[in-house]
Amino acid sequence: MKNLTQRLRPVAGGLFIFSLFQAFHSQTSWACACGCGVFDVGTSAMFPTESGNMAFFEYDYMDQSNNWSGTNKAPAEANNDKEIRTHFLTFGDQFMFDRSHGLQLEVPVTFRYFRTLDSDEVSIDTFNHAALGDIRLRGIYTGFSSDMSTGITYGVKLPTGDSTYEGFDPDTEIGSGSTDLLLGAFHYGPITDNGLWNYFAQINLDEPIFTQHGYFPGSEIDAAAGAYYNGLKFDGAAKLAPILQLLTSLRSSDHGGNPAADPLNTGYQRVFISPGVELDAGAFRFYTDVEIPIYQYMNGNQLVAPGMVKTILSYSF
Fold this sequence. Notes:
Elements: H1 4-24, E1 52-64, E2 66-70, E3 72-73, E4 81-96, E5 101-117, E6 124-132, E7 136-141, E8 150-157, E9 179-190, E10 197-210, E11 220-229, E12 232-234, E13 238-251, E14 268-281, E15 284-304, E16 308-316
């Protein structure tokens, strides 16, 4: 445990920066119907460690079936929406030109099932829709140290997803219809001298800058801090690493001229505990976790999922 305090200092700094973000926005109503930005943080397997190419496929799942208001579960009758079940499939590539500069492309495809009261609030309407989601393009800079352990990301989310599907509200649409600025930072390193225990921290900002249809989705901040054990090896090649992390997701209320933006029932603060595991088998990596909410504050009435699942398969070459 030598120099443990010094090694954990970057994590403390990262969490301090995150707390400043939260304090700065403490008077803003945080939330969203989807909350899928939290899937973009807390995955140490995606941090670059060397130059070269890595192709990946990510599958995320959540079933928003519980009505929530404030910090408590609320009666289902208080919300016209009854269920939002979503499968996210993301195809991506991360290419590090050298040990300092890289690019990452994410192309999502989303399958969404939606149950809600009809316009007369008498019977239930059911919708199934699949479409291309909003493509994300990020630059990566890891030139702060020779081991690439500290990095920043910067890029855009493009309005490629379908944001006009009939029957969906603006915050239920597969695409937000907005062009967003993406900014992020991460750091990872060893806790123990032998490298068996390690930590990581990450924070991402998603800030809409150009919007359509009179709908302005809320700003979102997602952060993660976690630790993992890297000492389980099989035949000297494959490694299995159990991971435990905390995730925080904050989103401001939607607004704009579109009356369906519904600022009173969007925006939230959420904290998740997330146990997971990563299997490293040379060029292939497999990662999966379960994200369980331990605190959530929802403005108005919103559907939430009792848990979410994330899985990533990657290949480096």
